[in-house]
Amino acid sequence: MTAAEPRIRTDTDADLLHHKTAHAIEVRVEALLFRFRPLILVVMGIASLIFAYLATGLTADASFQKMVPAGHPYIANTLKYQSELRPLGNVVRVAVEAVDGDIYSQHFLETLRKVTDEIFYIPGVDRGNLKSLWTPNVMWYEVTEEGMRNGVIVPQGFDGSERMLAEVRTNVLRSGRVGSLVASDHRSAVVLAPLLEVDPQTGAKLDYGRFSEQLEQKIRDRFQDGTVRIHITGFAKIVGDLIAGAKVILIFFGVTFVLTTLLLLWYSRCLRSTLVTVFCCGLAVLWQLGIVKLLGFGLDPYSILVPFLTFAIGVSHAVQNINTMASMRAAGHSTLEAAKVTFRLLFVPGSIALVCDAVGFSTLLVIEIGVIQELAISASIGVAVVILTKMLLLPVLMSYVGVGERAIADQRAKTRRQPRKIAFWIARAAEPRWAAVAVGVALVLLAGAFVAGRDLKIGDLDPGAPELRAESRYNRDVAFFAAHYATSPDVFVAMVRTPPGECGSYPVAALIDRYQTEMESVAGVESSASMVDAMKKSIAGTNGGDPRWHAISRDRYVSNAVYKMIPPELHNSDCSMVPVMLYLTDHKAETLTRVIDASERFAARVNDQEIQILLAAGTAGIEGATNIVIKSAERTMLFLVYGIVAILLLWEFRSWRVVVAIMFPLYITSVLCEAIMAQLGLGVKVATLPVIALGVGIGVDYGIYIYNRLELYLESGLSLRDAYVETLKTTGTAVAMTGVTLAIGVMSWVFSDIKFQADMGLLLTFMFLWNMAGAIVLIPAVMALLQRRSPQAA
Questions:
Q1: Average pLDDT over residues 427-434
Q2: How many angstroms separate the CA atoms of 183 and 352, rounded?
Q3: Coil, strand, or helix at residue 458?
Q4: SS3 165
Q5: In Å, how far are 79, 132, 511, 519, 530 from 523, measured between CA atoms?
Q6: Which ranges does the record mark as transmembrane (predicted)?
């Protein structure tokens, strides 16, 4: 104990002495809160029942449109022609593979027919655009002496005879579908099923979880046997697998809940205060889920982690309540008075910290992607209910429940004994010499993180679905398609807009032909396809198949004649738009960037009043637009987070030195997080971006609580070092406990089958621990370097 310690007043927050408005609000709220305790419990109890009922109706929800940046010009172009482009957008590919032999057997073709029929009747499939060797919209073409002939692939009256099988083989070869609907080795065939986001008859949204289950039950489970294997890819299957895997998240949440409860019990030495604290944190989750349902939201595979974040934020703040309540009881206050003092001490720092948490989430709204904006709203709601349950309900409950005698005795023992040696070692960071060492090490770490994070990319860095593990069934199916089919599922579509009726004219066809030729030389583009390819083939066919006629004709009569033979999906109804498909090797960020840059340069050269190349549709085009939006919004988001948090800190502590001290470790956290993501091969995208904002929001809590208590001791006359020793005995211990508890809770996520959840668990574990360690070590170090003149300066 120091000589100055008796002068320390521990029942009032120093910030309340500096902010008259905050003090007046606190006095008023405290009086009302503890005067009407029974009424508050009744009101919150009724609200809890209502929200619990609403939460039971919450279902998994996902939407293709919510995953795209609706305000981006690429998406606007896509939506303008969404009817024509539907077969190129949200599509499920089902490959039926012959285990032995090829597809030209009666058993295989009958199986393919049954698979096609089953998929046709699954709700959500755009039946008019369904394609298979058995559907009438897939045809073969042939040049004969009499002219062009065509027909369906599987002839009428197919009986499985050798003659019919040979005819099917011939039809497949002359259809030009090898590499798209039929594998290059002729050992598998594909059913292409475009999806409808909204049922045109009922208006109901597509249930991706149910759709994926039906694919598994009606297709894979039913038809996959020793002779046939089924492979399924597409956005709907990714989301379906994520939703199925997300159900396991409940297990991880349960593990987190149990571990948190046990660690809080070990720390507090009081069962009843631990149960009340965990109850309030769990109640915050229940309220958040109920309000989300009330707003009409669901839980998509990305926002399903938000309830845990709500719980984590609640625990982060509630630990301070347990610690302060035990201290006040040990100081001789009654249970009711201790609850009042606890509320008084934590009113300003707790409110500011929670507002900072809300800021961290709300800044995600600048990213115009539906799933991120819903996550931001859902998480902000979570913070709002934590304010109610932690700041209002918990003090009321603690005023009744209190803390046990063992916890009070333990707190008194902590007060009497000297701080642990580690506290004195850490407090040396408050001495100028050691402070310089600590800040110097932090700066070296920051410089290393900058170097390591230079390779951080926007978007996906791996083929397939990076959200799932490389060995997952979905990614094995993606690898199968990549190995056996020439047309990649990663399709980039440019839309060539013309005056009505002019899509087949020579100027348009020549421009498209040049675009395809130029784009096929771009690294990452495997092949291209458009109406022009069909025109060339038809012109050659109507001229005896002479390859010299395999070209674009300047004769409008020739163009008009072959236009009638072109499949309708290669142009829109009034011949004013032609989609040009670029099949890419993958959807990695570098590939998409090269294709977009090359396409934009070409469009800038050729676009005029009559003919324009519009970007971009297809799965790759939409993902490219998403990457552009995230890249442009990421820095804006971080600037807003840091800017608003800095303003709030400046208002609370009225010192730029304190703002620098608290935010310095937060900035290091952001840079280190990006470095770790770069080294782990994680790109900045929809699944990872929220974690970066979260690190700032939750991390600032530690700094606020630490300096708030440090400020009290400084204003009582202690030196910076002695004041920090006392801070570590109380708030510092609680902060360390919070960081370790939260880190252990999310560490179990690394065992999840969902890779992005495992990655988030790893990143959050690092953030919780580093934010805790950085705040404890660097805040006193920075303060020691910035305020050398007077130890009392704030």
A1: 87
A2: 60
A3: strand
A4: helix
A5: 28, 31, 21, 9, 19
A6: 38-58, 248-267, 274-296, 302-322, 343-367, 379-403, 434-453, 635-651, 658-680, 686-707, 728-751, 763-786
539 or 174, greater pLDDT: 174
For residues 133 and 136, what is the distance between their CA atoms, to the nearest angstrom? 8
Cβ-based neighbour number of residue 682 at 10 Å: 26
Angle at 553 (CA atoms; ends 552, 557), nearest 5 degrees? 140
Q: Which CATH number does 5-55+269-411+421-462+625-786 carry?
A: 1.20.1640.10
Least confident stretch, 9-18, 202-211, 446-455, 509-518: 9-18
Rg (Cα) of the chain, in Å, rounded?
Answer: 32
Q: What does the buried/exposed string (b/e) look like for 194-233 if buried means 16 or more CB atoms within 10 Å of the residue's CB?
A: bbbbeeeeeeebbbbbbbbebbbeebbeebbeeebbbbbb
Confidence of residue 71 (pLDDT cuts 50, 70, 90): confident
771, 702 contact by CB (below 8 A)? yes
Lookup: tokens for 68? 């795209």
Q: Which of 175-184, 629-638, 785-794 shows the lowest mean pLDDT across its residues?
A: 785-794
Band of residue 627 on the pLDDT scale cut at 50, 70, 90: confident
The full length of the chain comes to: 794
Contact 729, 419 (CB under 8 A): yes
Pick 237 or 791 by higher pLDDT.
237
Question: Is-contact 89 65, C-beta < 8 A?
Answer: no
Q: What is the pLDDT of residues 530-565, one digit of tens each?
A: 888 888 887 777 776 677 777 887 877 777 777 767
User: Quick one: pLDDT band at residue 699, thresholds 50, 70, 90?
Assistant: confident
Instruction: List the chain domain ranges.
Output: 5-55+269-411+421-462+625-786, 71-76+470-624, 85-244
Q: What is the mean pLDDT of residues 354-359?
A: 84
Say whether pLDDT at 684 is over 50.
yes
Do residues 673 and 695 lie in contact, with contact meaning Cβ atoms separated by under 8 Å? yes
Residue 440 has pLDDT above 90, yes or no: yes
Euclidean distance between CA atoms 40 and 95, whole angstroms: 60
Tokens of 332: 């001789």
Residues 609 and 503: their CA atoms lie apart, in Å, by: 14
Judge if the upstream peptide bond of residue 736 is cis by omega within 30 degrees of 0.
Answer: no
Q: Name 236's Cβ contacts closer than 8 Å, sequence gap at least 6.
A: 64, 90, 92, 124, 195, 206, 208, 211, 212
Distances in Å between the Cα of 793 and the Cα atoms of 191, 292, 386, 564, 648 are 73, 45, 33, 84, 20
